[in-house]
Design goal:
The protein contains 24 helices and 11 strands. It has helices at residues 7-12, 14-63, 69-75, 79-88, 92-111, 122-130, 176-183, 226-233, 250-256, 294-304, 307-312, 323-327, 347-362, 375-386, 392-395, 408-415, 418-430, 434-442, 450-473, 491-494, 502-509, 524-529, 540-548, 568-582; strands at 114-117, 144-148, 187-192, 239-244, 259-262, 286-291, 333-336, 366-369, 478-482, 514-521, 556-562.
């Protein structure tokens, strides 16, 4: 059989033949790499699909079971009443566990809020609780508690919404927070859905899909503790644990009409919590509760800030719950602002702050205006710190994964080629959109050097000193302000809202305890006033706020309460007083 390339030609043109061979091998090699990547992506997508099918099967199996009259009565109880029922009549523990498991799965059939169903057999739950010594000292005895998907539970998977993590082995141990909850007699039974990588106020990921708001299934529940917000608002959990690095507890509480609390970093353990920005410490992430009322939030924090927490995690200072701060009844001097000068809140949000200010004044407290110092500078520090590595740590998780809609806006910003980024930044500056241009520029991490990171850390310390000096000069006990510049809005609109974190993320930077209390709802007058909304910059972000909230009548509106670092109990006291004055009146 004749050779494809004549031998004589090979001898006469060895370089040409060599180049052809090398080129062919390179093409085969590239083709193999591309084929492997395509196959890897398919494998991840198939793994995610199988995971979702397993979850949906478990959810459907429990959702189809009817809730009895006795279970319905349990679901109507407050958290304290559920605990009292479990203590006084241990036989009811099985009913409590069954009621919340069935209700949670029913809520998830419409909102897609559950990722893991791991509830033990109700009889085993009762037996386990009855074996605990001194049930009267177990502060959450018999209370079902849901957990955000990123919180480790022994034997359960933790994916943070990444297909790549589906194949990882289940957790070999509980997170410290899970151990503390179980120590206090809580019934942990489900884990809840999140946006991919938990870096979004949206609620979509390729493993479990999109979460929806039970108050309006076309609306977003907020994020990143999306599933917790949806589950609790739908009545499927009396208490849930979320995490908050930029507002991820407070945003879903605000969107879903709940109470949510972000403690001071250092008061609650983070051991066993999985995240996508490992090593990033400029923004303080923390675990905290969401619930339908402040009493339940207080109950949870009292349990968490107990000696067992500090035995399990020696990294924490042993600062147990301070009842004196919570129970104090003295009149307070409280600062307030309805607009920080960066993102103008919609009228309903401003109205909520002013309602709270007037109610606190009538109760005898002194309310004084407060102006946030140099808010643009604070946002620049936050953007620079979060993307100090140019997003490389975060992007490694998405190498073969589908990028969820909730994070596409961020993904584009950190993956633009340098020349494209420079052109777009210049274009935005020329259009007068300075805020957008600066945001795009900072998402590169600039030179990504240790020197720049140290500079950001120095600027953070300097800004904290400036902020707290103003706080002390005005002799404030607390501050009330907007929780978020918008309210719950359609799913598509929240995908571009990652930049509207200024009212929440500021207090992560400052490490202040901050909690939100839902006090009102958007009314027709609020929406009519939106017609005249302009914002501070007249740029596309301002326009997006207006557009997102045009159909928001009836959506809940909260107010945010803030105190100095490590004065968490005082913050809870302010939250409780706001609730009593405006919700329980």
């Amino acid at each position: 059989m004749d050779a494809i390339i004549p031998v004589d030609y090979c001898n006469e043109h060895p370089k040409t033949v060599g180049a052809c061979v090398i080129g062919g091998l390179a093409i085969i090699g590239c083709g193999t790499v591309i084929a492997n990547r395509i196959q890897e992506k398919r494998n991840l997508q198939f793994g995610a699909f199988r995971k979702r099918v397993r979850v949906n099967t478990a959810v459907q199996a429990n959702a189809l079971k009817d809730i009895t009259d006795e279970e319905a009565q349990i679901l109507e109880m407050s958290a304290s009443e559920v605990i009292a029922t479990a203590r006084n009549d241990p036989e009811k523990i099985e009913t409590i566990a069954t009621a919340y498991l069935h209700k949670a799965c029913q809520v998830s059939t419409t909102t897609n809020c559950i990722t893991n169903v791991f509830a033990a057999d109700p009889s085993q739950v009762k037996e386990g609780l009855m074996n605990l010594s001194d049930p009267e000292t177990r502060l959450l005895f018999g209370l079902p508690v849901s957990l955000k998907e990123c919180i480790n539970v022994k034997g359960q998977s933790t994916t943070i919404g990444l297909s790549d993590y589906v194949s990882l082995k289940p957790a070999t141990d509980d997170a410290v927070i899970t151990k503390v909850l179980k120590y206090h007699g809580a019934i942990t039974y489900v884990k809840t859905n999140i946006p991919q990588c938990m870096l979004s106020f949206g609620s979509d990921n390729p493993v479990y899909g999109q979460v929806r708001n039970p108050l309006n299934l076309k609306f977003a529940p907020g994020g990143s503790s999306s599933g917790e917000g949806a589950l609790i608002a739908g009545g499927g959990s009396p208490l849930g644990m979320g995490t908050d690095i930029a507002g991820s507890i407070r945003c879903p509480a605000h969107f879903c009409g709940l109470c949510g609390f972000k403690p001071t970093t250092g008061r609650v353990s983070k051991e066993g919590i999985i995240g996508a920005t490992k090593g990033q410490v400029l923004l303080n992430s923390i675990v905290g509760p969401l619930a339908r009322d402040v009493d339940t939030v207080v109950l949870c924090m009292r349990a968490l800030m107990s000696p067992i927490m500090y035995e399990l995690d020696p990294n924490l200072p042993p600062l147990c719950f301070n009842e004196t701060d919570l129970q104090s009844e003295g009149k307070m001097r409280i600062g307030y602002y309805a607009d920080d000068g960066y993102m103008l809140p919609i009228p309903a949000v401003q109205r909520a702050v002013l309602m709270t200010k007037e109610a606190l004044e009538k109760a005898g407290h002194e309310l004084v205006p407060f102006t946030v110092p140099r808010i643009e500078h604070a946002i620049d520090i936050i953007n620079g710190g979060l993307w100090a590595d140019g997003g490389l740590t975060w992007l490694q998780y998405l190498k073969f994964d589908r990028v969820a809609s909730a994070i596409k806006d961020i993904y584009r910003k950190v993956t633009y080629p340098t020349i494209i980024r420079k052109i777009l930044t210049l274009f935005l500056f020329m259009q007068g959109y300075n805020r957008l241009a600066k945001d795009l520029h900072l998402s590169t991490g600039e030179d990504q050097s240790a020197r720049r990171l140290w500079k950001l850390q120095y600027q953070t310390g300097h800004y904290k000193n400036e902020f707290f000096a103003k706080w002390k000069k005005q002799k404030l006990d607390a501050i009330i302000c907007p929780s978020f510049p918008i309210v719950a809005c359609p799913l598509a609109d929240v995908e571009h809202m990652n930049v509207f974190w200024n009212y929440t993320v500021l207090y992560n930077l400052l490490n202040c305890p901050a909690g939100v209390v839902t006090i009102t709802n958007v009314n027709e007058d609020d929406v009519n006033l939106l017609k005249d909304y302009r914002g501070h910059y007249s740029d596309p972000w301002d326009e997006q706020v207006k557009k997102a909230c045009e159909g928001s009548i009836g959506m809940p509106v909260s107010v945010q309460c803030v105190t100095l670092p490590f004065r968490d109990e005082k913050c809870l006291r302010v939250m409780k007083e706001v609730e009593q004055l405006l919700v329980n009146e």
